[in-house]
Input
Amino acid sequence: MALFLVLGVVGLVVIVVSLVLGDLHGGALDALGADWFSTEVVGGFVSALGFGGAIAVQSGASDGLAVAVGVLAGIVFGAGAAWLTRLVRGGATDHTPDAADVVGQEGKVLSAVPEGGYGSVEVRLGGHTLRFNARADLPLDAGTQVHVTSVLSPTAVTVSPLWSALPPSG
Output
């Protein structure tokens, strides 16, 4: 039973070191070329093998049956670790919005846009707050709601004021 417990602790140490330092030795197991042999998977397998075998021995199983239970537990936990590793590593990241993404979006003037000069605008897009230098065909006061019409550079856009609401008919 002591051997099983030592294996379980060694597996946990491998997992903790992997989480704290990343893959051991710069990804020593990456040479095998599969998520099935990542440090996390090997640590999960060894840990489950050790603790699963120890639980089986404590329950009165023979050594042979304890090894089989440990290996089965190791396979299950190793497969779970491989699935989680693949899920985390393959997770998509969203594109960070830039000036080209705000054309057609609404924003608000932060600092007044003088005639022939630059002011600044704020545009909210996909949970991001973006600020740009802005130019307009006519002067715009701070707080004016605007529509982004084009991109001048990665940090500057042209804007126009939003149309006022139509007066009620009647």
Q: What stands out?
A: The chain has three helices and five strands.
